[in-house]
């Protein structure tokens, strides 16, 4: 094993523990949550959404529980649906999951596996929460063109090898079909996030993928009609 392999193994182990700790934290938090509210579920793009801070400036405020977990892929959400969704018995559910499947660490993105897992997630939600209004969210665009601190060209090429705007658009089209099959709404709240070339605006992102609060403010504004 090379030193690089060892470092990657340590990082992977740390991330795995962090994910497990968040699931445990959510399980405890859920005991104090009100049932029948709004839940956000997904990966880091959901976890990092500062929705409760941002909505303080809005006339209408909604009780929202954020149960996103950074680094999650569809299979991981599938294995923690109890803690991330079902225990809260939401009246409304917003899901954004799958971008980490697309940007697979090994570079082996399998669209069929993503869709199969997503289908099972939606199937289980339909069984457990038949009255819940489910909103399947379109994936946000990325910016692989701008320069970001701490990311050299090699890191950028690795980061965006499979996580491209073209791949995200293709995945959106398939996920939209999947949502329709389950009778769920597919919503695209990306208006205002993109520059003229279709990239995530540089001023909204720290690394081309994850957004600052100003980017999420755009998302929240677009979400208002569904909350």
Automatic annotation (TrEMBL):
One Pfam family hit: Lipase_GDSL_2
Database matches in InterPro entries: Iah1-like, SGNH_hydro, SGNH_hydro_sf
Domain SGNH hydrolase-type esterase: 54-218
Name of this chain's protein: SGNH hydrolase-type esterase domain-containing protein
């Amino acid at each position: 094993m090379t030193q690089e392999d060892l470092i990657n193994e340590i990082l992977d182990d740390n991330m795995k523990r962090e994910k497990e700790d968040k699931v445990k934290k959510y399980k405890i938090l859920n005991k104090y949550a009100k049932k029948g509210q709004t839940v956000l579920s997904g990966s880091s793009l959901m976890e990092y959404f500062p929705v409760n801070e941002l909505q303080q400036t809005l006339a209408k405020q909604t009780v929202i529980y954020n149960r996103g977990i950074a680094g999650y892929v569809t299979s991981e959400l599938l294995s923690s649906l109890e803690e991330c969704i079902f225990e809260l018995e939401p009246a409304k559910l917003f899901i954004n999951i799958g971008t980490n499947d697309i940007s697979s660490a090994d570079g082996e993105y399998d669209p069929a596996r993503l869709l199969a897992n997503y289908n099972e997630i939606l199937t289980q939600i339909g069984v457990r929460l038949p009255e819940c209004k489910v909103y399947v969210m379109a994936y946000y665009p990325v910016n692989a063109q701008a320069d970001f601190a701490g990311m050299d060209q090699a890191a950028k090429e690795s980061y965006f090898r499979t996580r491209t705007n073209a791949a995200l658009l293709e995945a959106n089209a398939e996920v939209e079909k999947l949502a329709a099959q389950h009778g769920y709404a597919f919503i695209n709240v990306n208006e205002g996030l993109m520059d003229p070339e279709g990239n995530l605006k540089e001023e909204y992102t720290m690394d081309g993928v994850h957004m600052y609060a100003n980017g999420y403010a755009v998302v929240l504004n677009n979400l208002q009609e569904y909350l």
